[in-house]
Design goal:
- By secondary structure, this protein is α/β, with parallel strands linked by helices.
- It has a single domain, classed as VSR Endonuclease (Endonuclease, Chain A, 3-Layer(aba) Sandwich), CATH 3.40.960.
- 39% of the residues lie in helices and 14% in strands.
- The chain is built from four helices and five strands.
- Strands 1-2-3-4-5 form a five-stranded mixed sheet, sandwiched between helices.
- Helix 3 links the parallel strand 3 and strand 4.
- Helix 2 packs across helix 4.
- It is globular, with a radius of gyration of 16 Å.
- The model has no long low-confidence stretch (mean pLDDT 90).
Length: 150
């Protein structure tokens, strides 16, 4: 199936997709801040440039979009056009995510991944539940936790 948008229209659409300050990220930030957690944002010197960095807890948080990171949930679907391109792109993102987590672990960081499907869509969790899980992770000793929709 051919793309229904021109190259210029597609470029404009893709350029408007945000990497920082997304709605799911802002929900997590506000929820944790309200519970007294203080964090740094997007520290570029850390591998993967985590969305939130909590040095006091030696933890980082990634708020991942299900499409861009290839999460196998109801929000992920390979586009009908340029399937080979998208499979390669998303597969590369998944590989980079795995390597990022490995490096952060070697550097002594604990990693929390909050998936977009936990905050959006019909299978989402209550925001309070997501924040409680994040708080429990930050106060605990687990090295990795993924929070995803039902």
């Amino acid at each position: 199936m051919a793309d229904v948008l021109t190259g210029e229209q597609r470029h404009l659409n893709m350029s408007r997709i945000r990497a920082k300050d997304t709605k799911p990220e802002m929900l997590v930030r506000r929820g944790l801040h309200a519970r007294g957690f203080r964090f740094q944002l997007h520290r570029r010197e850390l591998t993967g440039c985590p969305d939130l960095v909590l040095p006091r807890h030696k933890a980082v948080i990634f708020v991942n979009g299900c499409f861009w990171h290839g999460h196998k949930c109801h929000l992920f679907r390979v586009p009908r056009t340029r399937r080979q391109f998208w499979r390669k792109k998303i597969s590369g993102n998944e590989d980079r995510d795995r390597k990022t987590i490995e490096v952060l672990h070697r550097e002594g960081w604990r990693v929390l991944i909050v998936w977009e499907c936990a905050l959006r869509g019909p299978e989402r969790l209550e925001l309070g539940s997501v924040i409680e899980r994040a708080e429990s992770f930050l106060k605990g000793s687990r090295s990795v936790l993924e929070v995803k929709g039902r």
